[in-house]
Specification:
By secondary structure, the chain is α+β, with helices and mostly antiparallel strands. The chain is built from three helices and three strands, in the order αααβββ.
């Protein structure tokens, strides 16, 4: 009998959270190109292609997206001013396919340039 594997950030993937944090941090904090990171790994006897590194970056982005969205929303809400735009668009509602409905795409921009996108099926009522 074999014990179940511990949960991994990438299902059936080899990289653990520490390696993924290193790759993402190197790319976005240290501004290190993925081909350069490939050469760093090669010097340590590990072959990882830039394509694989890119896929790891994408896999890390998906679970972090709600956190980043919440942080941007919080920053924008604490701005001295907020720009806002409501754009209507026709959208096929998957729960009512093939029905077409009107949706509302909201864009909020705070004073420091943070941008938050939101989608609603109905207009938002604003207090005046």
């Amino acid at each position: 009998m074999q014990a179940a594997l511990p949960p991994r950030p990438i299902e059936k993937g080899r990289p653990g959270p520490g390696l993924l944090a290193y790759v993402v941090g190197s790319k976005y904090t240290d501004h290190l190109a993925l081909y350069r990171l490939e050469h760093i790994f090669e010097r340590h006897g590990v072959q990882v292609t830039p394509r694989t590194l890119s896929e790891w970056n994408g896999a890390v982005a998906d679970p972090l997206e709600p956190i980043v969205r919440a942080m941007r929303r919080q920053q924008a809400c604490h701005s001295a001013w907020i720009q806002c735009d409501d754009t209507t668009l026709v959208v096929q509602d998957p729960s009512r396919a093939p029905e077409i409905r009107t949706g509302h795409l909201w864009v909020y921009r705070g004073e420091r340039g943070e941008v938050v996108y939101d989608f609603t099926w109905t207009p938002i009522e604003m207090d005046h």
